[in-house]
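A reminder before we start the practical. When you read a complex entry, don't treat the lines as separate problems. The point of joint prediction is that each chain is placed relative to the others, so the output describes one connected object in space. Small molecules and nucleic acid strands, if listed, are placed in the same frame. In the example below there are three entries. Take a minute to note the order of the lines before looking further.
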Amino acid sequence: MKIPYGGDYNPEQWPRAVWEDDYRLFDAAGVDTLTVGVFTWGLTQPSYDKYDFAVLDGIVSRAVDGGRKICLATGTGAHPAWLAASHPEVTRVDFEGRKHRYGARHNSCPSSPVYRRLSTEIARRIAERYAGNPAIIAWHVGNEYGGACYCPICAAGFQEWLQKRYGSLEALNEAWYTTFWSHTFSDWSQIEPPSALTEHWRGPDHTAFQGITLDYQRFMSDALLANFCDEKAAIREFDSSTPVTTNFMGLYRPIDYHRWAAHLDFASWDNYPPDDRSAARMALAHDLMRGLKGGAPFWLMEQTPSVTACRDVNPLKRPGVMRLWSWQAVAHGADAVLFFQMRAGRGASEKYHGAVIGHSGRSDTRVFQEVAALGAELSALGSVTLGARTPARVALLFDWDSWWALEISDGPSRLVRYLDVVTAYHRALWTLGVDLDVVPVTASLTDYDVVVAPALHMLKGDLAERLSAVAARGGTVVSTFLSGRVDEDDNAFLSDVPGPLAGLFGIRIDEWDARDRSHVNPVAIGAATFPARLIFELVIPEGATVVGTYTGDFYTGTAAVTRNDHGQGQAWYVGTALDQAGVTSVLRPILAAHDLLGPLADLPDVETATRVAPDGTRILFVLNHGPSPAPLPAMTGIDLLTGAAPPARLAPNGVLVLRAS
Amino acid sequence: MKIPYGGDYNPEQWPRAVWEDDYRLFDAAGVDTLTVGVFTWGLTQPSYDKYDFAVLDGIVSRAVDGGRKICLATGTGAHPAWLAASHPEVTRVDFEGRKHRYGARHNSCPSSPVYRRLSTEIARRIAERYAGNPAIIAWHVGNEYGGACYCPICAAGFQEWLQKRYGSLEALNEAWYTTFWSHTFSDWSQIEPPSALTEHWRGPDHTAFQGITLDYQRFMSDALLANFCDEKAAIREFDSSTPVTTNFMGLYRPIDYHRWAAHLDFASWDNYPPDDRSAARMALAHDLMRGLKGGAPFWLMEQTPSVTACRDVNPLKRPGVMRLWSWQAVAHGADAVLFFQMRAGRGASEKYHGAVIGHSGRSDTRVFQEVAALGAELSALGSVTLGARTPARVALLFDWDSWWALEISDGPSRLVRYLDVVTAYHRALWTLGVDLDVVPVTASLTDYDVVVAPALHMLKGDLAERLSAVAARGGTVVSTFLSGRVDEDDNAFLSDVPGPLAGLFGIRIDEWDARDRSHVNPVAIGAATFPARLIFELVIPEGATVVGTYTGDFYTGTAAVTRNDHGQGQAWYVGTALDQAGVTSVLRPILAAHDLLGPLADLPDVETATRVAPDGTRILFVLNHGPSPAPLPAMTGIDLLTGAAPPARLAPNGVLVLRAS
Amino acid sequence: MKIPYGGDYNPEQWPRAVWEDDYRLFDAAGVDTLTVGVFTWGLTQPSYDKYDFAVLDGIVSRAVDGGRKICLATGTGAHPAWLAASHPEVTRVDFEGRKHRYGARHNSCPSSPVYRRLSTEIARRIAERYAGNPAIIAWHVGNEYGGACYCPICAAGFQEWLQKRYGSLEALNEAWYTTFWSHTFSDWSQIEPPSALTEHWRGPDHTAFQGITLDYQRFMSDALLANFCDEKAAIREFDSSTPVTTNFMGLYRPIDYHRWAAHLDFASWDNYPPDDRSAARMALAHDLMRGLKGGAPFWLMEQTPSVTACRDVNPLKRPGVMRLWSWQAVAHGADAVLFFQMRAGRGASEKYHGAVIGHSGRSDTRVFQEVAALGAELSALGSVTLGARTPARVALLFDWDSWWALEISDGPSRLVRYLDVVTAYHRALWTLGVDLDVVPVTASLTDYDVVVAPALHMLKGDLAERLSAVAARGGTVVSTFLSGRVDEDDNAFLSDVPGPLAGLFGIRIDEWDARDRSHVNPVAIGAATFPARLIFELVIPEGATVVGTYTGDFYTGTAAVTRNDHGQGQAWYVGTALDQAGVTSVLRPILAAHDLLGPLADLPDVETATRVAPDGTRILFVLNHGPSPAPLPAMTGIDLLTGAAPPARLAPNGVLVLRAS
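Here is the predicted structure of the whole assembly.
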């Protein structure tokens, strides 16, 4: 038992002779796991009434013969050309109202009955054929589900979804506030998908009716989930136990992964960070993925060993970076480390995407050597981290509904982006070295000492009560500007801002200013001042203590940051977008008060993360993301990668996997 | 009798209990006038053959019971969902050729027979029901008419409009210069709306045939006007006297408000300036609106008390600014001061738009307090300004045809924007404190000493003669680059530039240079030099005196600014885009020569404006838009807001309403 | 015999009286050649079954009577309105999938049978009518062919074109690498034009399947070529000898002019450079055009005498620039100098486009005077340059397939643009004063000492062997990053980068980095360092000598520039985008070694070019593009423009036409 290592492998693109080269190189690199079949629908069903598994049989057999474990895909990452030609309904209508024809991938209308029937059928046949093969350790359904469709079939599906949600048009009209702009619907059939041809006026985020757009996002996420569930159910007809997953995309807005999570047996995701300064962001995404299944380990399903292809500029991962980021994934809960892709394709849009084996088939490249070295490390590590969990006392709330509602809102500011706020608060926690869980707003908060809820725009269910309970029992709650504004239907609360949270924070907000990015109003917190930008809520204390004040404009001296005693704990509110140092300065004393500062909190480039194995073994990962060697304090334990005690300095890109001694 | 004060009120969005809160707060704020029913079509006609006025009855009754005056809307600001569903023809086809379905507002095809019939009918029924109610002081038709439709019904309407305009295809082909690019039309039915699918190549301003595009703009303005006239005629069936208006949008390009003006009983408009440095721009817009009806007072139909919602960034009006801008409107001719909106809606795209009463319903907010304070001031002021007119001796020509022709022109420069030129010349006049009228090119010019015609690209009718007459009798005419270029059909004059104006200005122009914004060619005027940009006409004097010369490039020393004696007066020509100081330096001596400099012309941030009441009372408004207190010279009169003599200093955002003593 | 001088003339836009003015001014300007009829289709065929040549007869007669030579167009630069109305198939479907209706120009679907039949017929009738008129010196087919259509007729045409190219779907699937993303086509009818509705995801350059998009570009270029060939064949029915051309657009990506060239009797093009710093770029375009027909002279079919109209900003050609650029064209092989246009149109989108005769009809304008002066010079020059050829020993490879393949590639960098690379290498050669040919990759290379192949992304046929042969016999080959990557189908070579060129250059490349424009990695070459940007190939010498090394990042000290001895010559490889000085520093010693540095290589603003007349007369053109007088070394010969010996200094915009004495 060890961490599965390998990745996406498409031998159907190559003659058999190349396969033999591949397996020789897999051996050299310690590759034990192959994801196969992700785009094989056209291969396994070459026409409407013909199925042909000869090639896939060969691929599976060769893997079995080679002693590999298999993550077997259903192949529905893209539909075949014949299907689009014979059943045009399977292609999507886009946001601009344009009916697409055959091409690309992610191209299936999720509501199309033909698509649903045939994608289910191919999954069923594959499961029927390969279930029971002991090499198969997971089923991989679809691929990077995403996008949206606005076709008439989806419109009907939306209407049906709305009937289930609202029961009556009266309820729907009230939820959508349709009296505004004479929008009352008198028949379900009048409801259109919100698009450039209906409610939207400057792209997907600019809508006349937020409620309609918000519900369509929810519907489309559910519609795509139904596709996943279709295929999973078909697999379960033949295999009751092998886990089923699909590869997520981390911080991906269109799909509410929290709503999907219950339907996956384990989470997995593809890590393609925007740039090489993304260590904190990747940590957030890993924690979000781990949080999908209540803290259970996930798979790193894809990462590039070297370069991406689809970006405008595709920089190369420097030496050591692929290893560092692989270990970061493990540190945050990954129980598999997989690449896209094992061998570089010759043609089409990913021919320049990095691969373990390049076009020349060499094993003496830097990239192959690094892959092989990591393979050896993972083999040496063995099973110690498998199933380990993160012992977090801090929760960061993450909510797709708030993400959507905030970013489709007209006013106060389009410049406030949900992820910017969340990542600022996460980065502060990450820099301060605390282990944290990223959880949905429905998660139990009873185990956390600190709960951070940035830009909690929409407040649903009993969350206000549960947050109050955190403070009441001695915990600390932190929230920010633009929280507590709207209910589940995106209708404003008819009370003081921040709505049901006003009491917890001991404040009210009557007005707020928004300004361009260039406008700065420094906020004084104690002896320090921090630039604040974009939005400035004029916070009126109603019991809270003023911690930070604006130093400019007509509201100079009024509250920007407050702290309210609540029960045995506290609730902090930050009414403006402080810069990163400002956010960190707010969070540091809070963590300190709960004794939650990380062991290396003063080394901002050095990340720490803890996992506790099922047998109780506690493992501390230490990763140096900085450009310089980091001096380490005396630390106990043994580095599982070297078998030695931890060194006094950790090299750039260096990794320690310390088992408590 | 006093200035009506209040604004848009949508109680149909609320339960009755809230209405009572509203009226209590209206009392507290001195609100006496409510605009109701702007988006009630779906409410009053819930299906094709059903009308239901119960809610609107209640709204009107409650207002009457509360002693309010009513501006009653026909409710056609948006059409109902059932109408789009049952009659898809009512929705528009956009510039990209996309047929829209139900959504948003401003969504009706103006040419649709069903839309025209039903919108007229709802106006008729509302007029029938409510005409004679003494609380109704105005009818409000539609809402912010605008946009454009490119559907087949509009295409047919366009062809019909063209037949009326041109009489024959021969005349049309000549006007459109269709011999160019083999474009001769041999049948009216061949003519398409100019769009992204026909003549346009990079958006609405880039057309292969300016004549076609120009005529479509004229047609569409007329088509929307017909919708207004439909409803007005229906109202007039039941009410022969109460004035009818619709709310304009100030400097709004798509609609030629001059062509509409004759059909309105009074002008009204919605003032949403782009930023808080817009004092001069708002003054221009107010003067333009006043000029629509020959100087008669207009209504400020909408302004926000605090923030907008639809901008990317929606800054807050600082304390005092709402009051200052309200008085500015009155200073320029407003006889009503109204807000959008009285109570903030809960949902959809304007839930964050500012309102007199916010979501929490408080009266102790800063915004409510300022609204109430202004209400008290207006009540105290009483009727003195009602019906007052502006005694202007300066006219600024404003022409939608020139606006359109200039901005759809290929060459010389897309960077020259009509409003930039107009606002530069207006700002200079405004800074210099002169009262001015903004008038159409058809206006009588006989009462003006100075006529300024910036970027008078298109020269129509007898305007050249009338401008010459101004100079001949001792007045001064000022024009600029890109004037006198084309005739009514956008065909170049076959004579020296500036066409029929060449004689008046005593110049000719053979060539012109255009350069990027970063390129500066300083112009020397007397001892000073001013940066000039974008376009450089090489002005050849043919009798004119050279006032300013270029100091750079191969045309160094040639004329950029000229003055020509004509009769007893003068004609000035400015051949390049001088910076603001340059424009002001040209206009200052002209105003001085006519003894027209304002009393505070040396205080650039302090605006003055005069109104003369029907009884001859002369009122001088003084408004400080600057950040600092302004020292005032000794001024006679009494400040109607305080009852005191004018102070020695005027605070920032300060307002004086001085009645000559 | 002299250089034809004149240009596009559209008297059909004017009454006859104006024609007489025109001819008087033509006489004054030395205009002897008129291009007529470019947009006359609607005039000569006013309806489906009616042809009317009365006006065109008059135009031709008047030109003949005036003693002018005629370049007679078929008039198909735009189709008539009645054709689009009666046969909607003739209009295009655009990349976004939108069916266009009548408007603009370049508006015909090249595959439409009706369009093909009628455009051929009008060409046939014009040829029939005017063939044999001795004034006609050339036929001008269509106008600036370009753009693309994505309609169903083109889809069928594409499928047919593919069947011819590939023979079988098996071959097509392999070429397009369709196993990737399950794209296997099982019927030709499944193949769609690649567009925003099928394979593309962010505009025309972002495709999921490069092979499909690449073939569509090839197909569309061929489809438009077929239109040209249709008309040419019709002309040839009546005129077997007068040369036929169409006006190209220089560095125009959508059409592979190399594939077209064989079908033209001579090349001609329209020179509208992007700005007034385009001397080198124009030289490249001239040389490319000359290279189309193996070095034979071409026509400068259009240039503006003063300004363009369609740009956002249309700057004026400074005094002397029109003359300088006209002579530059001649220096590079032009045997005609023609303007667009002779008289400025009154209306539509080119009314502000520069013309020899402006709207006022004056002859005392600067522009007219300069045109007349050049006319006199050309008359004085006579026939000496006619038919002269350029004696080049340097070849620059230019390849539309590489252009397309590079710019539609996903990865490594969208910031690398083919023309940027080509123009950098061309500019270096141009600055160094060497005469060069710009040739297709299929050209014979046996006559060249130096062959420069920038960004030779796609390597086709036996080119690798022919390049090796250049070096083998003592020549020098230069290539750059991103060369030798893909085969004719855009599939990566399964060998070391740069593929079949690896041996010639003695290198291999395993990995490459790409970075934003702001990122610089200086390259050390000898004692100098040069900034390098965008892409950094890590070059591993396999026999080559390291000439330049990176000085930054983890690959510091590794090879960026290499030189490999091959046979008696050398092959240089530049693995990164050096700045202009860096490129020049690489090429200077290479030219020097072959004794190919120009006589004025140290005067960067002074261009030289040589032509050798059929009688052996050698003419050296010297052109000063700089802002200052250039000191000239002692040069022999006589300046044909002055009859004097060459001066010691050449004024800005100055031109010498030196005949060796």
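Discuss with your neighbour: The first helix of chain C runs from residue 16 to 29. What might explain this?
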